[in-house]
Specification:
- The complex is a heterodimer.
- Chain A has helices at about 15, 30-35, 40-55, 60-70, 90-95, 130-145, 165-175, 190-200, 205-220, 240-250, 360-370, 405-425, and strands at about 110-115, 125, 155, 180, 200-205, 230-235, 250-260, 265-270, 275-280, 285-290, 305-310, 320-325, 330, 340, 345, 350-355, 355-360, 375-385, 390-395, 430-435, 450.
- In chain A, helix 7 links the parallel strand 3 and strand 4 (about 180).
- Chain A has 2 domains: about 1-350, ANL, N-terminal domain (Rossmann fold); about 355-450, 2-Layer Sandwich (GMP Synthetase, Chain A, domain 3).
- Chain A is globular.
- Chain A is about 30% helix and about 25% strand.
- By secondary structure, chain B is an alpha+beta fold.
- Chain B folds into 2 domains: about 5-75, VC0802-like; about 75-140, Alpha-Beta Plaits.
- Chain B contains 4 helices and 6 strands.
- A 6-stranded antiparallel sheet of chain B has the order 2-3-1-4-6-5.
- In chain B, helix 1 (about 20-30) crosses helix 2.
- Chain B is globular and about 45 Å long.
- The relative contact order of chain B is 0.22.
- The chains are: A alpha/beta, B alpha+beta.
- The interface between A and B is medium-sized, with 18 and 22 residues.
- The complex binds zinc ion (ZN).
- Zinc ion binds near residues 273, 278 and 333 of chain A.
């Protein structure tokens, strides 16, 4: 192993795993790394960024990219220097199909995963032995963080094939000594039977499958009393779904974030506070950017998550645009770990620019969720009137909030306009429509109709 | 007795779109509901259709079944003199007692000219109108 392939400094994972403490006490897998902050973190990130840039030179793509940017890896000295480098996008990775982004010989790659592309070829991700070691350590951190330890029985109900969720969680869970059931997907009856018969305490699956599981168990009249922890990821899910899953399954539900290009799941994860996700700053250099201008945004500002993985060997990436919308949360977390990101609220592709202000449909959704007088369905229409962008939002009046009085309707309309203005810093037109009249979407919603044509 | 003078108006939330009134009227017709008086109040793309009907429960059921947002609102109906000054007389009775009229609409039928009123304080309004020598129609006239 090269020196940087064992990045977790001094503390042996085995030592961390041993103490059995009372419920509620903080548990760490690699405490020094998980809680690294300030200058110590910055120094480590700088060292690792430099290493990452050198490693990236093992690929033709990054050699060309540095050359066209007119800089060499030696010019990257501080974290701020990263802005001198352009972003790497998903389509760049596709362009490198199949092995164009490998910085090591294929013989050093011990595993390959792919991510399904909706168009064309998949994206290929390679892992060295060191990569797999680090990835499983990150999963180990996450599972330990939510209170799982030796003695827990973990059923991993996701695809075990090319998808990273199966094997990724599997090896992390084995690492901390959980009893792992690699049940993969399908056969819900059998899944329920195993949870019940094996006394499963923790499950991992997509939130939608968890709901299906809960309903199937309910139908079959089977109580899944042994469950206490649910880890859900791979698709966006709401706080209201969290409440439902927790009630139906009797679990505490945690959000898991990751993407194959950055190893897979485990990049960021909720701690027991469940108020944002800890992203592992020793392994991932985080930027939040304005998706249009590419400029960095500060904590509390919503934008696209851009990640430079700091310890990846087989496939180093620089300033990788995830397409996911989130923000950095500045508040210190009581658990003692580093800065969190907000739960992913959408895709940067969906962003609208209205009179120069960035608007994510998820922000609108969030505002409407907080107003009981209106429903959660909405449509956004954008027009250009006299060279000015005008945004109109249609929202349904709630069935239970119609008093019969026009004045009350006008009050509700004003309230929605005000709350949208507070959240978006934008004046909008709000139209109240009849309940049930807006389109319902299955899968990806098409809530925005942009009718602007060139001026 | 003010209670018998309280009349249940149905109020329907409706977008201001072509065909909406026709759709509401058709639903009432199919339910065998007779519309005695109605008005449309409109603001900024949406409105409220208000109606006094002979069978409010059936009207509520039929419209709700079609997905409409329907509410009952209590109003009062005052018999007016069908001549110039008839409306003034009633408005003056209420205004003189500082009773605020939220909205009003009128029709002329076999009971003569009738003013439908939505007021803040119906019991006071009824008392004031009766003291002024005008008649509040009991709900049995309509429903
Ligand atoms: Zn925390």
């Amino acid at each position: 192993m090269s020196t940087w392939s064992n990045p977790f400094l001094s503390v042996s994972p085995i030592l961390c795993a041993l103490p059995k403490v009372a419920k509620g006490r903080q548990m760490f897998w690699e405490k020094p790394m998980e809680t690294l902050k300030g200058d110590d973190l910055k120094r480590l990130q700088e060292d690792r960024l430099k290493e990452t840039c050198s490693r990236a030179m093992g690929t033709g793509f990054y050699r060309d990219l540095f050359k066209s940017a007119g800089i060499s890896p030696a010019d990257i000295k501080t974290l701020d220097d990263i802005t001198r480098l352009p972003f790497t996008r998903k389509q760049d990775l596709r362009g490198g199909y199949p092995f164009g982004f490998l910085a090591v010989p294929l013989s050093s790659v011990v595993r390959i995963h792919t991510t399904s592309g909706t168009t064309g070829k998949p994206t290929v991700v390679g892992y060295t032995r060191g990569d797999l070691e680090k990835w499983s350590s990150l999963i180990a951190r996450n599972l330990t963080m939510v209170g799982l330890r030796q003695g827990d029985v973990f059923q991993n109900m996701v695809n075990y094939g090319m998808f990273t969720g199966g094997l990724g969680f599997h090896y992390g869970a084995e690492k901390i000594g959980l009893t792992v059931i690699p049940s993969a997907t399908g056969n819900t009856k059998r899944q329920i039977e195993m949870i019940h018969d094996f006394g499963v305490t923790a499950i991992h699956c997509t939130p939608s499958y968890a709901m299906h599981l809960a309903e199937s168990a309910e139908e079959a009249g089977i109580k899944l009393d042994s469950l206490k922890t649910g880890i859900f990821g791979a698709e966006p899910w709401s706080e209201s779904l969290r409440g439902e899953l927790e009630e139906k399954l009797g679990v505490t539900a945690y959000d898991s974030y990751g993407l194959s290009e950055l190893y897979g799941p485990g990049v960021a994860f909720e701690c027991q506070e469940r108020d944002g996700l800890h992203i592992w700053h020793d392994c991932y250099l985080v930027e939040i950017i304005d998706p249009v201008t590419g400029e960095q945004l500060g904590p509390g500002e919503q934008g696209e998550l851009v990640v430079t993985p700091l310890v990846k060997e087989a496939m180093p990436l620089i300033r990788y645009r995830t397409g996911d919308v989130t923000m950095l949360i500045e508040d210190d977390c009581p658990c003692g770990r580093g800065m969190k990101i907000a739960r992913i609220t959408g895709r940067s592709d969906d962003m609208l620019v209205i009179r120069g202000i960035n608007v994510f449909p998820s922000q609108i959704e969030h505002v409407l969720l907080g107003i009981p007088e209106v429903g959660n369905q909405f449509m956004v229409y954008v027009d250009r009137v006299n060279h000015l962008d005008e945004m109109t939002i249609e929202v349904e009046l709630s069935r239970t909030h119609f008093s019969g009085e026009l004045a009350d309707l006008a009050r509700i309309q004003k309230k929605v306009i005000k709350e949208l203005r507070d959240a978006l810093e934008l004046r909008t037109t709000v139209r109240l429509v009849e309940p049930g009249s807006l389109p319902r979407f299955e899968g990806k919603a098409k809530r925005v109709i942009d009718r602007r044509t060139g001026d | 007795m003010p209670a018998e003078c309280m009349i249940r108006q149905i109020s329907v939330f409706s977008e201001n779109k072509p065909g909406k009134l026709a759709s509401i009227a058709k639903a009432l017709q199919e339910g065998g509901v007779n519309i005695l008086a109605f008005s449309i109040a409109e603001a900024d793309g949406f409105g409220v259709v208000r109606a006094i009907v002979n069978k409010p429960e059936i009207a509520y059921r039929e419209l709700t079944r079609l997905g409409y947002n329907v509410a009952f609102t209590e109003v009062i109906a005052v018999g007016m003199e069908d001549r110039p000054g008839g409306l003034y007389e009633i408005a003056d009775l209420l205004g003189g007692a500082s009773l605020n009229i939220e909205y009003a609409y009128a029709y002329s039928g076999k009971e003569g000219a009738v003013l439908i009123l939505r007021v803040d304080n119906p019991a006071d309004a009824i008392a004031r109108i009766q003291a002024g020598g005008r008649r509040c129609l009991p709900s049995s006239v309509f429903q």
